[in-house]
Design a protein that fits this description.
Strand content: under 5%
Number of strands: 0
Length: 171
């Protein structure tokens, strides 16, 4: 058996329905057709997608943006500091990034207080997120905390991470 390294970033895109309406028109698909169409993406596949973001058509975006977008250099610096923070935290364990930390370690050795994970715990109990999805959510919460310069994720970081897991975002 041969084992090859496989570190990559996969970006997926899908239309919200079979008719894939142009920006100016509304969808004409029946709800059952939309569900069938989205059902073509298997749950196990979607469970391995960390971030799910629903994009709005460009015409729906506000033409009157008040704030200037952040310069690339500013974002690059924040990401660099977040990666350094994660590398320092995980260095003694043999990991460099939040994505490398095994789920059991996140839940056992770096467990967050119940008040922080309450929303995630309820989603797990309801079946809205799988155990794998919950682990991915925790990794994302740690990344959000690192980007914010926080020591540990708080309830807002976990809630935001959970929003990225929301299946409706793919609809």
């Amino acid at each position: 058996m041969v084992c090859y390294p496989a570190r990559f970033q996969l970006v997926l895109a899908s239309n919200p329905c079979p008719c894939a309406p142009p920006r100016e028109t509304d969808c004409v698909c029946a709800p059952s057709a939309r569900r069938r169409y989205l059902g073509r993406l298997s749950g196990p596949l979607l469970d391995r997608v960390d971030l799910r973001v629903r994009m709005r058509p460009i015409t729906a975006m506000s033409a009157h943006e008040v704030a200037e977008p952040e310069p690339t250099e500013t974002v690059r610096g924040r990401v660099h500091r977040a990666r350094e923070r994660a590398a320092r935290r995980w260095a003694g364990h043999g990991w460099r990034t939040n994505s490398e930390v095994p789920g059991p370690a996140l839940r056992r050795d770096f467990a967050l207080p119940g008040t922080v994970t309450a929303l995630l715990d309820r989603s797990l109990d309801r079946g809205a997120v799988t155990a794998r999805g919950a682990d991915r959510c925790l990794r994302i919460a740690w990344t959000l905390a690192d980007l914010a310069g926080a020591e540990r994720p708080d309830a807002d970081h976990v809630a935001t991470a959970l929003e990225f897991r929301d299946r409706r975002a793919a609809a």
